[in-house]
Structure formats: structure tokens, C-alpha cells
Amino acid sequence: MNPPNRSPLRCALESLTSTRVRILLTLGIVLGLGTVGTMAVWTDNSTATSGTFSTGTVSLLINNANPYNFTSLTLASMLPGESRAAILQVQNKGSVPLKYSMSATTPAGSPALTGFLQVTIFPGASPTNTTTNGMRTGGCTGTQVGQATLAAGASVNLITTVRELAATTGVDDLCVVAKLSATAPTTVQNQTLSAVTFNFSATTV
Q: Is the pTM of the predicted complex or chain greater than 0.70?
């Protein structure tokens, strides 16, 4: 029932106004809570810094040189069965351990004599060279780790089972024997093999 002296329209407007006030009050509470939720919070950050990074070095030398002039392994006017021994020191001067293999190469156009020269490798041995009844003989003690007959204008493998050298100070003394086969024919007389190149291939362990 409408209060006396108040028209139905006035009562409706008052009711609508009251409802809007309640809605606005409710929004005010919600907005107020939202405002509390955006208050600043304490934060912090932390970091971790790595150490330095650097690359290693691979440095393989022969008798402190690269290349090395292996003139101690030479023998002129060889006869069948004669041989010569000389030492090669393989050195690792790099900062990382390595393993190496060894081969021998002769120049293109090398004479037939090449195919009758045999090279044998002994580790950790000292060479001996003697002459008995005019026959020159070179030798090394120990157990061989490689052997091959040379090939004209080609490469042959001498050490196929890789040998390891420690970083910086690794050393491997190799005694090398070059021998002319006792069965070398007379057709290879007066021939000269100008050079044999010993190749050492190193990789990291």
C-alpha cells in the first residue's frame, strides 16, 4: 500500500533510486577490494655467474720440430739385407691428451727400389748400428708395433693401432729400422729413393 499523499509514480521512482544506491554501494565494495589487491609487494632477484670457457690445443711435434728433417735415417750404396736404425721422438706439446697413427709416403716416380725397402717401428728403444764383415746392420730392441714395405708414389700404414700421449709432456720414443730386402734383384742396382716422408696423424682422445 502506498503511503498517504504519495502517488504510485513517486513511490516507483524512490524504489528505483534506492536500488541504484545499493548497486553503487556494492560496486564500491568490490572496487575497494580490487584496490587493496593492487597494493605493492616485496620482490627480490638473484644471479649465478659461470666460470670462464677456453679451448684446448693439439700440438704434435717430432724431436721438437714440425716438420722434422730425419737425416739420421739414411744409407748410401746399400746391399741386399743391409739396414739402418734411427730414433724419432713423438711429443705432445698440446694441452689435451691425444692419440696418433703413423704412415710412410714416397714421392711420385720413385724407383723400383722402393718396393724392396721395409720399415719397422719399435717403441721405447734405442737404435744400434753396426758393421760386420762389411755388412751394415741397424737394429732396435723390444717388440715391433708396426711394419710395412714401402710403395712407390704411395702411402702405406706403419702404426695402425693408435698410441696415446698425455697432455703437455707426453713422449713416445720410436726406433725406426729401414732395411733393403735380402731378395732385392740386381735390377734395382744404382737406384736412389730421394725421400720417405713419415706422417703422424693425431686426434684428441
A: yes
